[in-house]
Design a protein that fits this description.
By secondary structure, this protein is of the alpha+beta class. The chain is built from seven helices and six strands; from the N terminus they run βαβααβββαβααα.
């Protein structure tokens, strides 16, 4: 079992909520077709043909697509992050969804995910925090799985619910509106209290 971090903006479109609510992750690079059973060399040729990549740009895209399609396996662990939290799940097999193979959606290369838990990023081992800071679309944890302490995290009660995400969005919308008004105050104490209250609200509802 391997561990991977993934970003939540495939093809330049933010899909964090969709990943959590619909139980999947995906990468971009539409237009290169179904990659079931396709090796790294064939992926390379398809990327060149579709995107005209060369040099470093080709190397990066090839590494990302191949990692998602061929290196990642059914049963591996994936971690995504949002607002200081790490969301941890178990991935399924690679799936090609032809209806999303276009520049508008750009999410045809997918894997189902069973989201198991979430944890504050600053409570993760330093090595996993470093992994989450990697800028690549997908990157693999290079150390032993035992060093991650993920067995304990995955064994805890599932915490992620769609209703919680919707509630959080609504709360932040209201809180930000109040904060905007308070920050207009000439009283520095009111400004400070507004900022502190927003932070408290975030920590209590996440």
């Amino acid at each position: 079992m391997n561990v991977f971090q993934m970003k939540t903006k495939p093809h330049g479109i933010q899909r964090f909520k969709q990943f959590i609510e619909e139980g999947f992750v995906c990468i971009g690079w539409p237009g290169i077709g179904d990659l079931h059973g396709i090796d790294k060399d064939e992926i390379k040729q398809r990327l060149i043909k579709r995107y005209g990549y060369t040099g470093h740009e080709l190397g990066y895209a090839l590494g990302q697509v191949n990692a998602f399609v061929n290196t990642m396996q059914d049963g591996d662990i994936v971690i995504i992050k949002e607002k200081g939290w790490a969301y941890i799940g178990i991935v399924g097999e690679y799936v090609y969804e032809q209806q999303y193979d276009n520049d508008q959606d750009g999410m045809c290369h997918r894997r189902k995910v069973e989201w198991k838990n979430r944890i504050l990023i600053n409570e993760l081992p330093t090595s996993l925090q470093k992994l989450l800071n990697n800028r690549n679309t997908i990157s693999q944890y290079p150390n032993l799985l035992e060093e991650t302490e993920l067995d304990e995290i995955l064994g805890k009660k599932q915490l992620i619910k769609k209703e919680e995400i919707e509630m959080l969005d609504n709360l932040f919308t209201e809180a930000l509106a109040v904060l905007e008004e308070e920050l207009k105050s000439i009283d520095p104490d009111r400004k400070l209290k507004a900022a502190i209250e927003l932070i408290r609200l975030k920590n209590s509802k996440l």
